[in-house]
Design goal:
Helix 10 packs across helix 12 (301-312). The protein has helices at 36-52, 74-83, 102-115, 132-139, 144-149, 151-163, 182-185, 205-214, 229-239, 263-281, 291-296, 301-312, 319-333, 347-360; strands spanning 22-26, 57-60, 89-96, 120-125, 198-202, 218-220, 251-259, 315-317, 337-341. It is built from 14 helices and nine strands. The model is unreliable at 1-8 (pLDDT under 50). By secondary structure, the chain is of the alpha/beta class.
């Protein structure tokens, strides 16, 4: 029952020596001295590497008004990646549903499904992916709480558009998301009725419970909410009800991990990402600083405390050390899949990290 209504494959397959499937989460990070064009080219390179080395899926996360994160338009980036890959699953990790009309998302991801049949995932979140003022500009309202509270209703509407099954008498019964299933039922239609599977994303218990109740796959943001990972996954499994999509729970977790040729280089790379987070959390978002700037930066005691707590949850070191850390995390959480995100200043460091992790797990060379 893994894919009756979701279309495509939900459950991944562990490759090489990995105990669970390995995937990639991309924030399209932009470092100082680099351009968004270069960052997007790096995304293509990483997606192609991930495809060659047997990573299961490649997701892009929606963020806004952050100079160091160029992933504001996941659907556009995914179309670009689809044109440069052939097999790997591509998806959103996620699209922030309250920022968009459900019909628009259904049309965008129906288009992606038509571009790359059977390869598209639709991951949905209910956070804005930005600060409150930017969220208000995106949504044309300052009543932001309503968007989060209406998430279940928005999700139901989006699902109806994707399945093209509003009941008779519904105001939207005559509206169809195109490309979509309506093209399979229209006279002479040969369009596949498949559509992207929906995943719910979360960093707390709300989406965990909702995903369980609806029988949907669940993705948890361990990379920035590690303290909530185990409770959220437990809640998801306890709440799970078999559905036409899944007959048993399936949960992946996003993990910050970076491998380098030696421990010191790995530490240098993740420190630049930590400084970037310090600046973001203190209202000074910018491009990802260089490792040299991060090493020379004079952290205040409060900033140092934040950095230390941040780095604890980033699996970093040599390839073997990262493999051990990822294996321990998978065992501790019971996650069905690990989705790795590498936050570093340079695209070269990120590419090298994924290659080293692939080698550590003896992933295939396809």
């Amino acid at each position: 029952m893994d894919e009756i209504r979701g279309g495509g494959e939900i459950r991944g397959k562990a490759e090489g020596a990995a105990t669970v499937p390995l995937s990639v989460l991309d924030l399209v990070t932009v470092g100082q001295g680099r351009t968004a064009t270069q960052a997007l080219r790096t995304s293509v390179n990483i997606a192609q590497l991930a495809e060659r080395r047997g990573f299961h899926r490649y997701w892009v996360a929606e963020h806004h008004s952050m100079p160091g994160v160029a992933s504001s338009s996941p659907a556009v980036i995914l179309a670009h990646l689809a044109a440069h890959t052939e097999r790997i699953r591509l998806g959103s990790g996620g699209v922030m549903l309250p920022n968009h009309a459900p019909l628009v998302i259904a049309e965008q991801f129906g288009t992606l499904e038509a571009m790359a049949p059977g390869r598209i995932d639709l991951g949905l979140g209910r956070a804005p992916g930005t600060d409150g003022v930017t969220a208000a500009a995106l949504r044309r309202t300052d009543r932001l709480g309503e968007g989060a509270e209406d998430f279940p209703q928005q999700l139901a509407e989006l699902t109806r558009f994707l399945d093209d099954d509003f009941p008779d008498g519904h105001p939207y019964a005559r509206i169809h998301a195109v490309p979509g299933p309506v093209q399979a039922t229209a006279e002479g239609g040969v369009q596949s009725p498949a559509r992207p599977p929906i995943w719910l994303l979360g960093s707390s218990g709300f989406s965990a419970r909702l995903a369980g109740v609806l029988g949907l796959p669940f993705a948890f943001a361990h990379h920035f909410s590690a303290q909530n990972t185990v409770p959220a996954l437990d809640l998801y499994r306890e709440s799970f009800r078999p559905s036409a999509v899944l007959d048993a729970p399936y949960a992946l977790i996003g993990v910050s991990a970076l491998a380098a040729d030696d421990e010191r280089e790995a530490r240098r790379q993740v420190l630049s990402g930590a400084l970037s987070m310090v600046r973001l959390r203190t209202g000074r978002p910018g491009l990802v600083p260089t490792p040299e700037e991060a090493e020379a930066y004079a952290f205040s005691p409060m900033e140092r405390e934040f950095v230390d707590s941040w780095l604890v949850n980033i699996v970093h070191g040599t390839a073997d050390e990262v493999r051990t850390g990822l294996d321990d995390l998978a065992k501790r959480t019971g996650a069905d899949e690990l989705m790795i995100t590498a936050n570093a200043h340079s695209g070269e460091a990120r590419l090298r990290s994924y290659e080293l992790i692939a080698d550590a797990y003896a992933l295939p060379r396809l």
